[in-house]
Amino acid sequence: MRVARTPTELAADRPDQLTFTLGNFDGLHLGHQAVITELVGSTRARGGTSVAVTFDPHPLSVVQPDRAPRLLTPLTEKLDAMADTGIDVVLVIDFTPELASEDAATFLSWLGVVRRSHLVLGYDFQMGHGRACDLSVLSAMGAELGFGLDVVPPVEHEGLPISSTRIRESVKRGDVQDAAAMLGRPYSMGGEVVEGSGVGRGLGSPTANLLLPAEKLLPGDGVYFVTVESLGGRPGVMYVGTRPTLDAGARLAEVHVLDLEGDLYGQELRVGLRRRLRGDSRFGSLEELKQSINEDLERAREVAEGRGCV
Length: 310
What we know:
Layout (H helix, E strand, L loop, with lengths): L1 E3 L13 E5 L7 H17 L2 E8 L3 H4 L11 H8 L6 E6 L2 H4 L3 H8 L6 E5 L3 E2 L5 E2 H11 L2 E5 L3 E2 L2 E2 L2 H9 L3 H8 L3 E8 L4 H4 L5 E4 L10 E7 L5 E8 L10 E6 L10 E12 L6 H19 L6
Parallel strand pairs: 1-4, 2-3, 2-5, 3-4, 5-8
Antiparallel strand pairs: 6-7, 9-10, 11-12, 11-16, 12-15, 13-14, 13-16, 14-15
Helix pairs in contact: 7-8
């Protein structure tokens, strides 16, 4: 998979044999995956090059910053997830106020959508200034200009279409199992392990503090059973919160890897959140906190060993 930053980097590919999809693809959930599967299959049937067009930063952070969401998959995570889909090229467009003001026809022309090009889009796709261009407009435009259009129906979970918004809501309330059902994989978090306060070590359970992208969506405060994918899926416990017992204030994410010897400082750690063990709590003393941590670790062992439900 190639990563391009401007349409001119597609110049080596025949424009009339480009098959495009466009979207934010935050989370790369099962609905997105259905679109990309159709894109790759259509491209192989027609010949040519499959191109997934996405945007950085998230468009809302430019046009309505106060409504911009925290992301399920910041750009690096999104590209990592796309690398396994069979896409030939991911074109990352720098989203600017100037781009936001363009009409759809101008943008598609700049992108390189020409006669005999093809689009594969999700059922709810909209684009252009004010999102004025929907699928009916695109269909008419394609008939006039000569490009094809395929529309992929929604993938549903519990009777409703899967969306990034629904997944964010599940993650925010700590229901990572519901999020995983819509993502098709556990919700993951990753970053460099940086030095923390050392409180966990003092309580007998050293933790790895993760330096996460500022735009990354954290799950609801609490304690989670996780698997550490960067360490071969080793089980662990993640705490997300402000450590109210310590009056620490800043929200953080820290991981204790079960039965791990040594420290992880400087390493890149990626964890998959499997289930929430409990919400966050303020304890009356450090001894009570330590007892609760030990109970969390025991529950995590039960789950890891198949004695508890994932």
